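Exercise 3.2. Students should predict the tertiary structure of the chain below and write it as C-alpha cells, then compare their answer with the key that follows.

Predict this chain's 3D structure.
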Amino acid sequence: MNKSLIELSIESLIKRQEIEGLIEVYWGEGELHKAVCKFSTPVTLEAMEKLESKTDWVLPEDYKRFLLITNGCKLFDDPEYGGENDLYKLEELIDFSYEDPYEECYSIAYIYGENIVINSKVYREGNPNYLYVKDKIDQFEDAVPLGMNFETWFDRFIVCQGQKFWHWK
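Answer key:
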C-alpha cells in the first residue's frame, strides 16, 4: 500500500529529528533556530466517529489519516520555550472551537495567532479545498479560504518549516 503524503511528511520529520536531535530551522532574515517536533499517540476510528456523531462535523479523509498517525502535534517548537504551532488533539477540537457555530466549521490548529479551520459543510459538498484560516479572535464567518485541503497544507507547512506560507505573495 502506498503511503499518504501526511504519513511520508511525518516520517521524514521524525527521521530528521532522530538523526539531528534538534532540527535546525531557517526563520528568515538570516536567522537559524533549533526546534523540536512532538507527536501524540494516534486515535482510533471509533473515537473519530464518536466526535462526528456528537458534533455533526465531518472529518475529511486526509485529516483522519493524520489523526490515525498522530493525535495532534507541536511543530518547530523552541526546545526551551515551546512555540505556537499546535495541531489540536481530537479531544481538543470542541474546546478550541468556541466561536459561534457557523457552517459546520471547527478549528484544528493554532498557528501564531491564527486558527486553521475545517469547513465540513464545504467538504460535505464535495469541494476538496475545505481548509480556511482566521484570526484567533475572529468568528468562523470571518475565515478566509486557503484553497487547499489538509494534506496539502500540512506538507507545505513542513516544507516552510512552520512559517505562515499562506500570507506570502
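Discussion points: Residues 98 and 106 are 9 Å apart (CA to CA). The longest strand covers residues 32-39.
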